[in-house]
Amino acid sequence: MPALDTEMRGLEVAQDASICCAINLQHGPDEDYSMGKTIATGRNFKTLAKMGYLSRGAVYLVIGGLALLAAFGSGGEMTDSKGAIMTLTQQPFGELLLALLIIGLVGYVIWRVIQSVKDTDNHGTSAKGMTIRVALFISAISHAALALWALKLLVMHDNSSQNRAEFLSSALGKWLFIIAGLAMIGAGIAHLYKGWTAKFQKYVEIPQQHRSWAKPVCQIGLMARGVVWCIVGWFFIYSAMIAGGSEVKGIADALEFLRQQNYGSWLFSLTAAGLFCFGIYSVLEAFYRRIEVRI
Question: What are the sequence ranges of the domains in the chain?
Fold first, then answer.
């Protein structure tokens, strides 16, 4: 019996080690997921990745919700990701919500890196596939920056941005802004395409009984985010090339830009509703997205 106990403990240690090393392993596009182990069998990692989608969903639900309230004159406001996080911190148990959000964002960053490096969705090494994988890595970087900002807010209660204007007015800052702007426009176009063609269904297995409402909600959410990202991307390029890096604009400015156009109130309301739909889409991803890496 002691030998059997030792063997069982050894198996448990080996299983834990396989989960920890999952990030270093890769699967082929045509392999049967029913065989072998996957990162998704590690409950801790799968929960962390799902928390990431929930965190992104929470941010966009707040952004879209506040914008909708503003559209209907009910006391809302236009805000961006950081503003949404600030709003969450002002709620009951705000610091706890912020801590959970940070954990979720970290999980999302890790999952995005794995998606990019290990090609979990089988995008391949073609020009299109590599473009998508690079975009996933950029997404990881941007959400890592947001997680660090949120951590600073939690620990230091400080959301200041000292020296940002000086950096953005430098030559390096301008070029980074142009590159970021082009990347955002590319991501925006990709979101528009993904929403219009419903390509997300390849990776999100929504139950049949929910597809009648979930599919259009996800499509609207993706296309609305695509529109906003294209506008923000142009703002970044404009800031670098014309405004000299003195103007840093984001989602709230994109919504205000839409509101100032012809039929602006309609455009603003529809986009606000779309961003709220994107929040719902992110929550659905937390529950139904395939999160697997071959071991």
Answer: 2-288
